[in-house]
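Form 7-S
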Amino acid sequence: MERAVSAHLEGEVSEPSEIVLAVAVAEGPQISEESLSVTVDRVPVVVDEIAAETGGRLHVCRLPPGALVVHYTATAVGQAEPEPISTLERISYLRPSRYCDSDTLRPVAIAEFSGLEGKDLLDGVSSWVGHQLAYVSGSSRPIDGAVDTFLARAGVCRDFAHLVVALLRARNVPARLAAVYAPGLSPMDFHAVAEAHLDGAWNVIDATALAPRSSMLRIATGRDAADTAFMTTLEGAASLTEIEVVAVAVDGLPTDDMTHLVHLR
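Output:
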């Protein structure tokens, strides 16, 4: 499967700043074409690439004040190889985290999914979250976690993913969040999905069902959105004014049978 993706960000840097970008396709599939440019007032900025978890690639930039423009494009073919889970990863992805408060949601997980195990549990959590939540753009705050989403009964993709992850961890299934490019997503944007470890592999769970899972491309992976933000300001002050994301399956979108286990490619 060949996929063409791009991300265009514009913003304003009001004082000398250091930012981290997570917009590049993670290592795994064959990347045949790729480019990343970062400019401030049309002057190129030096970008340092840092290896991150699960093949992710972070790009660190020190920026002077001015008009910021980030443009990334890539064409990717094929898929990543399945990865084993280490003991440390298993511990990390079973613990509560900043946006996935699984300890608080444990009574809910036990009450709603008692008796379910393995794939039945993954399917049950995905279906339950998809039916319980309404997808409403702008309905959640950047600081909202899984409990906030559970109470509000509405959110966007990251909120759906956080609730799935928290409920699975509460049932002792290692779970994490992945930021992806998602061909077929509407409205098009960066997308977030959950991954659960079962039968020796990480399986994609997208309770929004807004895009076929098998066409998605991994960008970043972590405990929750705190680890996978597409732009983080470490120092200084930088704000975004425009975001445009494009993700296309060149040979056409595949169908997505929600009863099948799918791995990110």
